[in-house]
Amino acid sequence: MNPTTVRGATLDYDDVGPDTGLPVLLIHGHPFNRTLWAPQTAALTAAGHRVVAPDLRGYGRSSVTTGKVLLADFADDLAGLLDHLGIEDAVVGGVSMGGQIAMELQLRHPDRVRALVLSDTSAPAETPEGKEFRNRLADRLLAEGMDGYAHEVIDKMLAAYNVTGMPDVANRVLEMMCATDPRGAAAALRGRAERPDYREVLASVTAPVLIVVGADDVYTPVAEAESLHRMVPHATLTVVEGAGHLPGAERPDRFNAALLEFLAPLV
């Protein structure tokens, strides 16, 4: 654990692998923490890459900011963390909300992004219905805590057949969700409800891009990933069979193989 203060928040993070390795910044989604990336961290460091995996503010061991945290706030935090570590640019990867934060980093700090890895995420701005849903969910989490919500959505976070077929993975994901501070989760939900449209940002990206999606993701289906791919014609699209919204956790070998193949020419 390596806590540091960035923009008024204490961020806890892992920085592992050789200092001379290709830097890879991994951004978890909601409502998780950096340990979601444990299988990727192990594979990447074994291949000689440097992995930086932070807990976003409000998640994991990082400090909580109440009220509302915009995706822009998360992106600026991560740019500050790269500054702290002396990393000029990195391969920036994120899953779900983390993918949207990666796009926000591309928007606000394009010089820090050597390449993008976008897993199970979407680019359009939130819809009016989505804004209402996220704000209502934020209210609920503050009133009730995380447990009920976590158990309701586990079979959407993972493919339903993996909840029963991979109990260890399901339990690990559930534990992460239940351990999240509801104040941090609510603040992120309110900020995410106001996210901008990233389609124009993606259309202008010239850096390498890897798009990954679980074949049975119900939150951001394969069609959503194909839409991203059409925005970035030079991108590589990988569909991970046997996985839902979190293919890096459900099918780490398949996810890691695609990731390592993508990173190889960048070294």
UniProtKB/TrEMBL annotation:
Keywords: Hydrolase. The keyword Hydrolase applies. Residues 23-250 form the AB hydrolase-1 domain. SUPFAM superfamilies: alpha/beta-Hydrolases. The keyword Hydrolase applies. InterPro entries: AB_hydrolase_1, AB_hydrolase_fold, AB_hydrolase_sf, Epox_hydrolase-like. Gene3D superfamilies: alpha/beta hydrolase (3.40.50.1820). One of its GO terms (molecular function) is hydrolase activity. It comes from the Bacteria. PANTHER family: AB HYDROLASE SUPERFAMILY PROTEIN YCLE, MONOACYLGLYCEROL LIPASE. This is Alpha/beta fold hydrolase. It comes from Streptomyces lienomycini.
